[in-house]
Amino acid sequence: MPNNLVIVANRLPVDRVEQADGTPGWRLSPGGLVTAIEPVMRANDGVWLGWPGGTDQDLEPFEHDGMSLVPMSMSQTDIELFYEGFSNGTLWPLYHDLVAKPEFHREWWDAYVSVNRRFAEKAADNAAEGATVWVHDYQLQLVPQMLREIRPDLRIGFYLHIPFPPGELFQQLPWRRQLLEGLLGADLVGFQGHGAAGNFVRLVRQRVGHKTHKDLVYLPDGRTVRAAAFPISIDSQGFEDLATSEPVAARAKEIREALGSPTKVFLGIDRLDYTKGIYARLRAFSELIADGHLDVEDAVFVQVAVPSREQVEQYRILRDDIDRLVGRINGDLGRIGRPAISYLHSSYPREEMAALYRSADIMVVTPYRDGMNLVAKEYVACRTDNTGALVLSEFAGAAEELRQAWLVNPYDINGMKSALLEAYRAEPKETTRRMKAMRRTVTQNDVAAWADSFMTELADVRSSHGKAVRPAKRS
Ligand code: G6P
Fold first, then answer.
1. Residue 83 burial (C-beta neighbours within 10 Å; 0-12, 13-18, 19+)
2. Interval between CA 328 and ligand 1 midpoint (Å)
3. What is the C-alpha to C-alpha distance for residues 140 and 309, in angstroms, rounded to an integer?
4. Do domains 3-232+448-461 and 236-444 have the same CATH topology?
5. What is the pLDDT of residue 464?
6. Is 309's C-beta closer than 6 angstroms to any atom of ligand 1?
7. Domain-by-domain residue ranges, the chain?
8. Which atom of ligand 1 is nearest to the CA of 88?
9. 137 CB near ligand 1 (under 6 Å)
10. Which pLDDT score is estimated for 39?
11. Among 161, 306, 309, which residue has the most ligand 1 atoms within 8 Å of its CB, making it the best to mutate?
12. pLDDT for position 467
């Protein structure tokens, strides 16, 4: 059935789970994107196209929780060359400041082109005449142009969830021009920040030779493409409600007791990714203990590392490095029943995350580069009593909005040590002043506002001929 709105993302918003009776079923993935997009999908008979994970072939479209989902299958070779290879071995490190060395392989690129084509064709099959198609993230940057070639009637939006690098780095890519042209198939290209949008427009001018003016690109065929910043957010109200619920409050208390009721709990929650700066932050914390500024009787660092992309070599190396570091720190500095670091390699449901946020006095978010970092915003949303301190990397997109955090340069270990200690010693008056301001920001700019502003902007793009998408009705 053709749809007026097609969401195209590498992943579907559901994960496969085993149901109570042992049969396979689906569960809505944790994460804000689905919360934001679901109401817009409902208002427009939307459909979501993406990979459900795994190598199942020929899965039929299905409904989950009132949402129409179209699963895209991936073969083992697609996973190795397109997903682990070009997406996460080339683009991911290239777009994150070369924190790891990107690899350039022609067979990875070929797989990227053919998987993108498959997504574009499937999107074309599912879109009604004049429909809106919203393509997401770095795995699918060729889809806008491929789709436009098949279906010039469509209104196409693209949103990049990760940073877009400066030209000096981007131009290493042997296929730089093809990627830029892929994105220019969209009417609106959205980025997390103004810096990223500026990088894109500059590259288009220099590398592709199109005329540009501010955030507009003028194509030779008369079409105009707009490139602008739409900083993403979270379901702030949802987190706030969860954090204040009775079971989460009880669980937060239990967590602190299980940790031995220390004076202060430090917390890090990240996908286990080399961009997140986990190693450096744990070193900074351990040095504060070794130097005698902190004592394991008073302070503990809870680090949750969510397993991620485990078949990619850089991620395996990182896991080993962190395992070794945590073992050494605890061996050197811990006491019986008092490890310096409580390390969990696991993923948790939203309820447990909210309980962890509630139980932590100092949240430590120190990526070397991050498009936004939603963990920082989730922590703030959960601190409904205006307590708690946030130590945040200057290189996370979130730092542009959460100015009242203790901002740090994650490459500067001494600077991080000072910030951790300041946050630890801060007077409640000071932390409350800062948290209040940050809470205002996160409450006012939630993920629904983000989706609305992107959709409204897309509907306004002059060059497009498609029908406008109706904004979702919100209570
Ligand atoms: C980042 C990317 C997403 C991606 C997610 C999880 O947030 O921007 O596109 O889905 O990481 O990574 P994974 O490789 O497991 O999909």
1. buried
2. 30
3. 18
4. yes
5. 45
6. yes
7. 3-232+448-461, 236-444
8. 14
9. yes
10. 80
11. 161
12. 47
**Can you tell me which atom of ligand 1 is nearest the CA of 83?**
14
Which of 308, 373, 377, 447 is the pocket-test mutation for ligand 1 (most atoms within 8 Å of CB)?
308
423 Cα: distance to centroid of ligand 1 (angstroms): 30
Is domain 236-444 given the CATH code 3.40.50.2000 in the classification?
Answer: yes
Using 70 as the pLDDT threshold, list the residues of the chain that sit under it.
31-32, 462-475
pLDDT of residue 42: 81
The whole-number pLDDT of residue 32 equals: 61
Q: Kindly report the backbone phi and psi dihedral angles of residue 190, in degrees, each rounded to the nearest multiple of 5, phi listed first.
A: -105, 145
Q: Tokens at residue 187, please?
A: 């009417």
Q: Atom of ligand 1 at shortest distance to CA of 138?
A: 9
Each residue of 27-44: pLDDT tens digit?
888 766 787 888 888 888
Q: Return the residue whose CA atom lies nearest to atom 11 of ligand 1.
A: 271
Given phi > 0 = left and psi -120 to 50 = alpha, else beta, which region is 127?
A: beta
- Is 162's C-beta closer than 6 angstroms to any atom of ligand 1? yes
Q: State if pTM tops 0.85.
A: yes
CATH architecture of the region 3-232+448-461: 3-Layer(aba) Sandwich (3.40)
